[in-house]
């Protein structure tokens, strides 16, 4: 089956009791049993829910994996992976990644004796150098949030395989429509389904996809034992979002390219972070492992002050000032004070995330309108 068809039909079967074409929202906590232990495969909704099962099947199909698991949020999905580990185990993670992942690792799991090493994953040797007998997992994010750095998924997967490590890729920024890490050798793909999978800024949810049955069983056991499951209404919303993922990502990518080029040509802009530029250090790898470059872009103004960044952020009309990304509407965000405020300033600056960096989640509006909006806000900023 071709991709466009998969997005529409993944996980969707007519409802057995009515024939409903859309998977119903099974808003129930429990299921009546015929006799103790005699049931229709459903006992209690933390363990099984038909709406969630339809979504989990769809997640596996679109991510080219065998098994999907849905969670109450992206960080809950990451949390489940960390619970595969035990005290003393070590993790190698990217020095530039989603702030909430860094917070979960450094503030929660390090308390339980898990050791994290943060490295620049653009250089494979940095990873290899950190591996010892305690290393269990490599955590990759590509493109990274918000600096749009690219990690070589195939290259890291071969290191992970050589050393018997689990490799997990946070594929939130690319979405399954642009990048499929399992096909490139990763063991687990993680998504914040809140973003492109849901696609409409109306749900918080997370997802994991994998091929290995034992790993799936272990993660399912964690999902039901720890209980961070999504509600059936949220599963329905993400199932619906997935149907348009393919065409949304095409448009996000087209608009993203148009805006990246506009920004680069604007004399008030110092630097644009977008892997579609040929001189982006990760461009060749991105071209190789991604189908397109998506709708996420970061940039800095020449006016290198917190105030200039703030002026710009307050003057866009179509780009709404908000955290999050991946919805149909365009958003603008200031990582230093918003999404990445949980990273200590020194750490942030050291990793290249300046006080004035601005991140865009380019939506699927008309590109001309979006460009006019940014152009106007930039002019107001440089003349104020
Ligand atoms: C938002 C996000 C997360 C966390 O997901 P939630 O659904 O907000 O819990 C993880 N990784 C990346 C790259 C994200 O953008």
How does this structure look, described?
The protein has helices at 3-9, 50-62, 74-82, 99-108, 124-130, 153-163, 213-226, 232-243, 245-265, 283-289, 306-315, 345-350, 367-383, and strands at residues 67-71, 90-94, 115-119, 135-141, 166-170, 188-192, 206-210, 269-273, 296-301, 320-321, 331-333, 358-361. The longest helix is centred in the middle third of the chain and has 21 residues, at 245-265. It has a seven-stranded mixed β-sheet with strand order 1-7-6-5-4-2-3, with helices on both faces. A five-stranded mixed β-sheet has the order 8-9-12-11-10, with helices on one face. The chain folds into two domains: 3-243, Type I PLP-dependent aspartate aminotransferase-like (Major domain) (Aspartate Aminotransferase, domain 2); 245-383, Alpha-Beta Complex (Aspartate Aminotransferase, domain 1). With 384 residues, it is of the alpha/beta class. 38% of the residues lie in helices and 15% in strands. Helix 2 (50-62) runs parallel beside helix 8 (232-243), helix 3 (74-82) runs parallel beside helix 4 (99-108) and helix 11 (306-315) packs across helix 13. The chain contains 13 helices and twelve strands. It starts with a helix and ends with a helix.
């Amino acid at each position: 089956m071709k991709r466009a068809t998969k997005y529409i039909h993944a996980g969707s079967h007519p409802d057995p009791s009515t024939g409903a074409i859309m998977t119903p929202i099974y808003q129930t906590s429990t299921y009546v049993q015929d006799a103790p232990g005699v049931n229709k495969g459903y006992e209690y909704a933390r363990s099984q829910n038909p709406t969630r099962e339809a979504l989990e099947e769809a997640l596996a199909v679109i991510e080219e994996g065998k098994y999907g698991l849905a969670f109450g949020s992206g960080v809950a999905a990451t949390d489940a992976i960390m619970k595969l580990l035990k005290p003393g185990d070590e993790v190698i993670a990217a020095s530039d990644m989603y702030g909430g992942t860094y917070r979960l690792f450094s503030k929660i799991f390090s308390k339980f004796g898990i050791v994290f090493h943060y490295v620049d994953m653009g250089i494979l040797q940095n990873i290899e150098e950190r591996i010892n007998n305690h290393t269990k997992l490599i955590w990759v994010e590509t493109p990274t949030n918000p600096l749009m750095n690219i990690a070589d998924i195939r290259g890291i997967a071969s290191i992970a395989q050589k050393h018997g490590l689990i490799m997990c890729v946070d594929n939130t920024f690319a979405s399954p429509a642009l990048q499929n890490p399992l096909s490139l050798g990763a063991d687990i793909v993680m998504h914040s389904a809140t973003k492109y999978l849901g696609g409409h800024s109306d749900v918080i949810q997370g997802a994991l996809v994998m091929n290995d049955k034992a790993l799936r069983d272990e993660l399912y056991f964690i999902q039901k034992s720890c209980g961070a499951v999504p509600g059936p209404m949220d599963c329905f919303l993400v199932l619906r979002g997935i149907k348009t993922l393919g065409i949304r990502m095409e448009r996000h990518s087209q608009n993203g390219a148009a805006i990246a080029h506009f920004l680069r040509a604007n004399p008030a802009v110092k630097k644009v972070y977008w892997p579609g530029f040929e001189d982006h250090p990760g461009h060749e790898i991105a071209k190789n492992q991604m189908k397109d470059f998506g709708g996420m872009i970061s940039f800095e103004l020449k006016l290198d002050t917190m105030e200039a960044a703030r002026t710009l952020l307050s003057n866009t009309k179509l780009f709404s000032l908000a955290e999050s990304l991946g919805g149909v509407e365009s958003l603008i965000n200031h990582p230093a004070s918003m999404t990445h405020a949980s990273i200590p300033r020194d750490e942030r600056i050291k990793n290249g995330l300046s006080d004035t960096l601005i991140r865009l989640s380019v939506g699927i509006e008309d590109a001309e309108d979006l460009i006019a909006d940014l152009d106007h806000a930039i002019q107001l900023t440089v003349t104020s």
